[in-house]
Structures are given as C-alpha cells and as structure tokens.
Design goal:
Growth Hormone, Chain: A, 3 strands, globular, mainly alpha, 15 helices
C-alpha cells in the first residue's frame, strides 16, 4: 500500500472505531441508568437502547447511494454531525422520551457503507482487500474495547458524560475526514464495496444470503436484548453495581477472544465454516440457558458469559466471511449492504422486544426470549449449503476498448479456478469469484489486456 492509501485506510478505520466505541460502550450501563429517567418503563428502556438501530438500518443503503451523487466526504461529515447531535440530545435527556429521540437521531448518522465506499475509492484494486480487512479488524476490536471500557468510563464521568464523549468523538471524526482523508479523484460505484440498486432484487432472492441476513439479525437482537438483563444478573449473583461490572466484563472478554482464535483458524484454514457456525450457535444457546437458570450462582453466570461472548465473537467473524464466499460475483457490496441493514434492524427488534419481555418476566424472561431466537436460528443455519472455499478477485480492464460484457465474462469463466465472473464496465474491472488453489492471475490479466 502507498503512503496515501495507508493514510486513507487508517483515517477511515479510526472514524469507524470512534463511532462504534460511542455506540457500544453504553451497552453495559444503559439499562441501569435509563431506569432513573422520567417516564422510564422496561419497554421504553428497551426501545431506547435499540432505537438507533432502526434509523441505522433504514438509512445505510440510501446514504450510500446519495454519496454517489453528492460526494463521499460530504455525506460522512453530515452523518457524523447527525451522530454527534443525537449524542448531545441523549446527554441532555432527563426523560426516557428524550433519550429515545437522541438515540434515533444518533442512528441517522448511518455512514458505515459510505466509509467503506470511500476506502474503495482511495485504494487500488490490488490492495483493496487488505484495506477492507484493516477496517474489519478495527470494527471487531472496537466492540471488545467498548464493552470492557464502558463501565469504568461511566463510573468516572457518568452516562451523560459518555454521550458527551461520543459527541466529541464525532467532532474529531469530522476533523479527520476534513483534514486527513484525501478527496477521491473520481467517485465510482464499487460493486465490491457498496450497494448497487440494480442488484438488490438478485441479492434478496438468494436463499443462502437470506440465511446469513437472518443470522446477523438474530445475533444482534440477542446481544441487545441480553444487555437489558445482564446488569441485573451481575447484581444478583455478584452484587456488582453497574459501575463495577467491568471486573467481570474485562476478563470474560479477554478469555472469549482467546477462545475465538482457534475456532476461526479451524473455520477458515480447515474449511469448516458451517460446522463452526453451528457450534457457535449451540454455544450461544447453551450459555443463554445457563444465564436464564443461573439465579444467584456467580460461577454459573461468569462461565455462561464466557460462552456467550465466545459464541458471539466467533459468529461476528464468520458471518461476514460467509457473505463474501456465498455472494455471486459482483454483488458483494450489495449483499454486504443488506446484511448490515439486517444487523441494525436486529438491534432495534432486540431492544424493543427485550424490553417488553423484561417487563413481563424479568432478566430470566429476557434470556429465555434470546434462547428461543437462537433455537429458531439453528435449523436455518444447519440447512444452509456448505460454502465453497472461494475468494473475490478484481481484474482491471484495459481502458478505451469496448467488449461485450457477457462474452468477456464467459471468457474469464473458462479459466481454471474461476467460479464466476461479472464485468463492471463503469468501474473498469471484472469481479471474479475464484478458487485460489487453481487460479492463475497471469492468465486472467492476459484476457483483461485483450
């Protein structure tokens, strides 16, 4: 990667990280804080926790399409401004209705897809996969840091202070976007990085991709609902107040991250993605059953949380990999856009549904609700087609020469190791789905050169 590409990728990954830190670090402490707001009920608390997911899910793809017309940096700055304004509203809220409004406004800063498109605009085809991987690792690391850091930060500055900190991070993100992120020389709709309207119907008809969309929807519904109940469980089993539960979250997350590594190695290197996914769902379900039955038994609660976060972290890593492997050539950006929207809608449903269940059955009822969701997901995952060990590959086309796309794609598909080809003439590239063990890049380059 060139210095410009490193700077662009690092800057955009930092912006992604600050957004996610702001969104997730309140998860462990939100339920305990929100019950003191005027008009708070369990149902309204759950709605407030998940509310940002609704606007995030609905606006991810439209914001990406709008950025094609008016510019990426403008939309990123606008989204961060909305996110910061929502954070300020949440910080000032004294009622649960005000908190819901702040969270909804936070969610309107739905620029995740635009940031990924900007990464694609600012990197060459041959290094784009590496750049996307850097952003992806940043996302995973940010989640772990946010959950562990949230309680001690809340203990020092309070939950309103956390929202002000989030607003400050939004301002820093705007400064980074304006001052450090280069302006792309041209804006191209990248099929591998953003949604393409013409491909939405194809993606939404693909049953295997829909299974993964259902999976990420369910996973984040479970996560959001569970955080309505975990603080109450830690108080009853370990007598930990919301400001002290970091002493559980930190070691639990460290151990679960360590257990995740061999699972991911088994999934990717031994081509056991489906088996590891199913095992992770079973682990998640078993941990939810244990949490539901834990009562005041501290050891059971802690071990169940290790299982919960291990299963969650494994699936957070595996599901995007499965989307990449299953999506037809040239549809990865669209498939990822639908997948991301499903994730955020799951956050909303988990918060709203979990809050309603908490009002009826308390913490045990929430864990039971999440357990049912996991058990519904299990047969959906178990009946999925075993994914091939395929990768995406971009081949630049020689500019200035008109060749019929269908004929050119068919020519690429005659090469050993090429599973599928799709020509994106407006990008000047061919999107290939390949088996790397049999693929010859030089042969593909010769065809592209004409």
């Amino acid at each position: 990667m060139t210095q410009s590409e490193i700077r662009a990728t690092g800057s955009l990954a930092a912006i992604f990280a600050m957004r996610l830190l702001g969104l997730f670090m309140i998860y462990p402490v939100f339920a305990g804080y929100a019950r003191h707001l005027r008009g708070a009920t369990p149902e309204m608390i759950g709605l407030a926790l998940g509310a940002y997911g609704l606007t995030q899910g609905l606006l991810q793809i439209p914001f990406g399409l709008l950025s094609d017309r008016v510019g990426r940096k403008i939309i990123v700055i606008l989204g961060l401004a909305l996110f910061g304004a929502g954070s300020a509203v949440a910080a000032l809220a004294t009622s649960i209705v005000g908190m819901i409004l702040g969270r909804v406004l936070q969610g309107t800063g739905a620029v995740g897809s635009v940031i990924l498109a900007l990464v694609a605009d600012l990197t060459r085809e041959e290094v784009r996969t590496k750049a996307m991987a850097i952003v992806g690792m940043t996302i995973g690391f940010s989640f772990l840091v946010a959950i562990a850091a949230g309680p001690p930060i809340a203990n020092e500055i309070g939950v309103p202070g956390m929202f002000w900190l989030t607003a400050l991070m939004a301002l820093i993100g705007i400064a980074i976007t304006h001052g450090l992120v280069p302006a792309p020389s041209r804006i191209v709709r990248h099929h591998d990085a953003e949604a393409v309207p013409a491909l939405l119907a194809r993606v939404l008809r693909d049953r295997e991709l829909l299974r993964l969309d259902f999976g990420i929807f369910t996973l984040h519904a479970i996560l959001t609902a569970s955080f309505l109940a975990v603080p109450a469980l830690l108080f009853s089993s370990l007598h930990l107040s919301p400001g002290r539960d970091w002493v559980v979250y930190l070691p639990v997350l460290v151990v679960s991250a360590g257990l995740m590594v061999p699972a991911i190695i088994l999934a990717e290197r031994r081509q056991r993605l489906k088996e590891v996914l199913i095992a992770a769902i079973i682990t998640l379900a078993a941990s939810l059953l244990a949490l539901m039955l834990a009562g005041s038994v501290a050891a059971v609660a802690v071990l169940a949380l290790v299982g919960f976060f291990t299963g969650f972290n494994v699936m957070e890593a595996i599901l995007p990999s499965l989307v990449t492997k299953i999506a037809p050539a040239g549809t990865k950006g669209t498939a990822t856009g639908v997948y991301s929207s499903s994730q955020f809608i799951g956050i909303f449903v988990g918060g709203a549904g979990g809050g309603g269940v908490f009002a009826l059955g308390g913490a045990a009822g929430v864990f039971g609700f999440a357990l049912i969701a996991a058990l519904l997901w299990l047969p959906v995952a178990a009946t999925m087609r075993r994914p091939g060990h395929f990768s995406s590959h971009l081949v630049p086309l020689r500019m200035g020469e008109e060749r019929e796309p269908a004929t050119l794609a068919a020519t690429f598909e005659t090469l050993p190791g090429v599973i599928e080809a799709a020509v994106a003439a407006e990008e000047g590239v061919v999107h290939l789905k390949i088996d790397r063990a049999r693929f010859d890049p030089a042969a593909a380059a010769r065809i592209a050169a004409g």
